[in-house]
Design goal:
The complex is a heterodimer of chains A (74) and B (341). Chain A is α+β, with helices and mostly antiparallel strands and 74 residues long. Chain A has one helix at 62-73, and strands at residues 12-15, 21-24, 28-30, 36-38, 43-46. Chain A has one domain (12-73): Ribosomal Protein L9, domain 1 (3-Layer(aba) Sandwich), CATH 3.40.5. Chain A has one helix and five strands. In chain A, β1 and β2 (21-24) form a beta hairpin. The longest helix of chain A has 12 residues, at 62-73. In chain A, 22% of the residues are buried. Chain B folds into two domains: 9-88, no CATH class; 103-340, Heme oxygenase-like (Heme Oxygenase, Chain A, Up-down Bundle). Helices cover 66% and strands 0% of the residues of chain B. In chain B, α11 runs antiparallel to α15. The radius of gyration of chain B is 19 Å and the shape is globular. Chain B starts with 8 loop residues before the first helix and ends with a helix. Classes of the chains: A alpha+beta (74), B mainly alpha (341). Chain A binds chain B through residues 16, 19-20, 22, 40-45, 53-54, 57-61, 63-64, 67, and chain B through 116, 171, 174-175, 179, 246-247, 250, 273-278, 280-282, 285.
Chain lengths: 74, 341
């Protein structure tokens, strides 16, 4: 019996307007402190607004941030 | 699970489903439905009837012949209830849907706008700050109707979608079902939360005490999922459900911890903050976006499904808060009676 190594998966990143980055195919995400976070779901959302309580993952807080910003602009 | 107790003439007429004979007196049931002049959406009897007819397609009942699922009489009765239920949902959401139709904006932006404009009662805030232990347990009882079969109603839509929309739905559903780990299935996590809070997590254990408006939420999903014609509504419903989940679930988790139930009980809600922040993007942008671009005729129903989700959840939130703020139980029989048997 022989073992074959699977060809590496491609990693894709999708930008959501006013929202997170969707990352598919990654095994881990390393944050700015050098801590590696294991990817345990088929697709992960990375925070872009800097306000997530679950960083590096998105927790939906950007919606509140965008609404606040919209109100300030008025 | 056994067939629930009847609540009125419609579910009384459905009691003949018990036993080996799959026959059903169609005229008796449809007559009982027709004599109901008030909206079915708010009728305990009609919603329980729809719920149990749909349940034949999920886990079924120990005292009902499994062949009843496809009995022509059962399908005829269900269709009779569904026609009125769907018409009511369309009327309930007509203004909201028309407002968002034929606008030169991507469907994703219109869906997100619909959700951010939604001014339903703030149930999550109440759970975070004020909910009592008894009320939290009541909330879990209400939610158990859907969460113990979480994701199942939208899974019916998988073979009814194509291409990119199907891929997006499957990515969400795979995650809902634990991404390959049985212990991480969302329905399993919810059952654990129920157990930690001293509740019976057996499928269907509390159906007899749950009012019609909660059953209506589950019934709307089953209606959309089980009809290919309504695949747009199934997609829109899931999109709205996911996109109104992450932030409220953070508040639910905080409420659970405030009452001292701890991390294990809060895990279901913690998981949904992270998971649904992903799912909302995939559902709104990729699933609904692809569906509307590939099958433009589905666009009105995508909006209809999303608006239905918000309207029914809003109705339920209002009813729960009215009951609790008025010092009443939000169940047909209060938790105290349930505990003492």
């Amino acid at each position: 019996m022989t073992w074959r190594r699977r060809s590496p998966r491609s990693v894709t990143v999708t930008v959501c307007p006013d929202g997170p980055l969707l990352v598919r195919g990654a095994d881990e995400v390393v944050d700015e402190a050098g801590v590696a976070h294991e990817v345990r779901r088929p697709c992960v959302a990375l925070c872009r607004c800097g306000r997530s309580s679950l960083a590096p993952w998105c927790d939906g807080t950007h919606k509140v941030v965008t609404e606040e910003a919209a109100k300030r602009n008025w | 699970m056994r067939l629930p107790e009847p609540r009125g003439p419609i579910t009384e007429a459905l009691q003949s489903l018990r036993g080996v004979d799959v026959g059903l007196a169609v005229d008796q049931v449809t007559g009982a439905v027709d004599s109901h002049t008030s909206p079915l959406l708010d009728c305990d009897d009609a919603q329980l009837a729809l719920w149990l007819l749909y349940e034949l397609h999920y886990q079924g009942f120990d005292d009902v012949d499994p062949r009843a699922e496809w009995s022509p009489q059962v399908i005829a009765v269900r269709g009779h209830l569904e026609r009125r239920f769907e018409a009511e949902l369309r009327e309930l959401t007509r203004v909201e849907v028309e407002k968002r139709l034929n606008i030169e904006e991507p469907i994703a932006e219109r869906l997100f706008a619909m959700m951010s404009d939604d001014d339903s009662p703030r149930l999550a805030q109440y759970v975070q700050r004020e909910i009592t232990t008894t009320q939290l347990r009541e909330l879990l009882v209400h939610r158990s109707v859907y969460h113990l079969k979480e994701a199942d109603p939208h899974t019916w839509a998988v073979p009814r979608l194509r291409g990119r929309a199907k891929v997006a739905l499957m990515e969400i559903q795979f995650d809902e079902y634990g991404a390959g780990r049985a212990g991480d299935m969302h329905s399993t996590l919810f059952a654990q939360t129920m157990t930690r809070c001293g509740l019976d997590s057996t499928y269907g254990a509390y159906v007899d005490v749950v009012p019609g408006y909660t059953l209506a939420a589950s019934n709307a999903m089953s209606l959309f999922g089980l009809h290919r014609r309504l695949r747009g509504a199934a997609a829109g419903h899931l999109a709205a459900f996911e996109a109104t989940s992450a932030l409220p679930n953070r508040r639910y988790a905080a409420g659970v911890r405030r009452l001292g139930y701890g991390d294990e009980a809060a895990r279901y809600f913690d998981e949904h903050v992270e998971a649904d922040a992903v799912h909302e993007q995939v559902a709104v942008r990729e699933m609904c976006g692809a569906l509307v671009s590939d099958e433009p005729e589905c666009e009105p129903d995508v909006l209809f499904g999303a608006a239905t989700c918000l309207a029914i959840d809003g109705l339920a939130a209002g009813r729960l808060l009215d009951s609790w703020r008025g010092g009443r139980s939000a169940l047909l029989r209060p938790m105290v009676e349930l505990a003492s048997g």
